[in-house]
Amino acid sequence: MTLLAAEGLNKRFGGVVAAKDVSFALAAGEMLAIIGPNGAGKSTTFNMVGGQLAPSSGRVLLAGRDITGLPPREVCRLGVGRTFQVAQTFLSMSVAGNVQMALIAHHGRTRDVVADAASLYRAEALALLAQVGMAEAADRPIGELAYGDVKRVELAIALAAAPKLLLMDEPTAGMAPRERAALMQLTAGIARGKGIGVLFTEHDMDAVFAHADRILVLVRGEVIAEGSPESVRANPEVQRVYLGQSGHKAALRARRGAHG
Amino acid sequence: MDFGFLVVQSLSGLASASSLFVIASGLTLVFGVTRIVNFAHGSFYMLGAYMAVTVVPWLLDFDRSPLLFFTGVLVSAAVVGVLGVVMEVLLLRRLYKVPELFQLLATFGVVLMVQDAVLWIWGPVEIPGPRAPGLRHGVEILGQRFPAYELFLICVGPAVLGLLWLLMHRTRFGILIRAATRDREMVGALGVNQALLFTGTLFLGAFLAGLGGALQIPRVSANSQMDLSIITEAFVVTVIGGMGSVPGAFLAAVIIGQLNSFGVLIFPKITLVLVFLLMAVVLVVKPWGLLGRPEPAAGRAALPEGILATPRFGLWEKVILAVVLAATLAVPVFGDAYTVKVATEVLIFALAAFSLNFLVGNGGIVSFGHAAYFGLGAYAAGLLVTKGGFAMEPALIAAPLAGAAFAALFGFFVVRLTGIYLAMLTLAFAQIAYAVCFQWVEVTGGDNGVVGVWPSAWARSREVFHYLVAGCCILGIAALRHVIYAPFGATLRAARDSEQRADAIGIDVRMHRWLAFTLAGAAAGLAGGLYAFSKGSIDPTLLAIPMSIDFLAMLLLGGMQTVMGAVAGAAAFHTIKDFFMPLTDHWRFFLGASIIALVLIFPRGLSGAYGALRRRA
Hints:
The structure holds two protein chains of two kinds. Chain A is of the alpha/beta class.
């Protein structure tokens, strides 16, 4: 079943066309990567899906429902979790506090002036943290964590809303290579296990070819190729404009690493 | 109304627009480069006028020539420019990295110090300036007489705009100013000597303020209230035009000049309100002003300046709390009448300051006009009792309702903005409230206010009234504190820490901030109502800028990083003020210097010191 469908998305900033007739579909439990060189329109496409940008034309459908132009908070309430290129967390709170906050929002209790926020949904938060392997750090201030761990907590925050779809903008940006592989492995495991669709952009080709079910290649705002990692890798136009020879070898290496 | 009259009215609007632009252009230039909103800009304007009324008559004694008049004006402006350099080197350099609330407070400290310095040097009596030789006559325009000096002023604005344009586009210094306004970090990365650039900008900014002041002397006498009245107008011009944009300031000054000169014909009483309404509308439609640009996004996330942890009371805190509560209740038994009065006022200010820290510390909503809700609560209670004939009890219920109602109304606009624009808009709304209370003499009693706001008979003794205040304020503080620990309080902290993340987990940030603003307004309104009864009177100082600054100084002194800091700050601030103010004629000077010292060397306040002590123990 189609979880997310983008139909003919266009975005113009003044005279610059950032996205031109971008269409794709994503099924539940599937991981779709958007790749492309800098300025290809990855983040623009992404933000149009997440509600941060309204498209100039085109539609975004979530489980058949039109969510085009809805603000992020409403997109979230319809079952979309999100992580950011630069991790966004609540710096004054503990690790568990961050996830508890997301749970408070998910359960619609942000206007509660009676309950005690520190003990609310604590058990659920610890369970979510355990899923991402961060349970031991629950009571540390989030500002003290290493960046890779912050990204894991951000994943737990996104999962707190019990999403049908996860949007991850360059999930491994700024991380060490070993942390990258572990985070992608973790994400893929959770997504497949719970049937959550994942749309992510990524610069790291190893991560893309190892974990994406399908890949969408954007160049100058246009989709130039779409399909399985094998078909994208074999596509001569993709090789010419984007991957290049060294990228091609990296892709082969990553594939061997993940499956061999 | 004939055509000639309208033309002359419009011309006089242009003349004031021109003066306003000269001042505002300096403010906007300084903000563009240093990102500091310089409250002391109004003080530079005032100093320009005082310098000119000193220097120009002396020069005119030699020869009554226009040349010497304008030489005097330029010399005055240059002296003020040098004072700007002094301020940059001594103070602003230490402020570039501190949060904007602290910058505003520190520059306001300079305002207070300059006010007392001016009174000390020039005395409290207004000093009229000489008229400009050669421009003393009137000119006949369409059958109306119009002063030649005003025509000259009309030309000054465009001339300054032209010169600034040349400076900004034809000189290296000007190009660096423009570059720094766009992207300060990049200019630093390119190896530009920032210290020199900032010092030079401060000279230019202060020079323009001084020039604006010096040019006013044929029209208005130099007086010690010039600074605050001009700074709010200059803020409005820069905010409407877009902070950092010189052409924007020009456009906004012309619009406001015309609005003022024609508004006075239609709504003579509420011209001030018109100007601030224009500002509110512009900011809601174009949040960065007419020709402004959005702030470049901050590089990396920083820990917010506000409440960071919400710890429970430990053993020590419980002991301290018990002692404080016992002392509060024991004051009427053991203290004399004066002590009881001070203790009552401390309780009232503690509630007001706590409600402000609920916004600033917990919500990251830096309100610079919290006195508005305090004062409106006081006016609601006071007017109900004196004009409405109601008793104290319903009036004390009306006070928080009035505070909440106005906070909800103003907050609707305020929460659409963030950062410095939000602070400016809260200040503007407070000034509207102040202007209405000041100008609507039939109802509010104007400057004198209203007397005879007495409690009901049962609460008329100082002791009983103290217990009434203690009950209301302690309950109010406890309730707000509970909200800080509740999900609603946590949601406000979340939105303060990362608006983007809060949005992405489904929080309607604006709506929550609006509710918080309303709640804080209610608490401040209650405090204001109680204050009206404790004084027995109401007057416009209750909602003036200095009152808002007092509240912020209480937060600063107590430490806005902790939940209870505001209470300690209110107690310390009010006792110190009450003790020292009768002893010195220069209270404002000491207050200003103390605020600056707090910002520079003691930014975490009393509770920061207490926290350090607890960690060591």
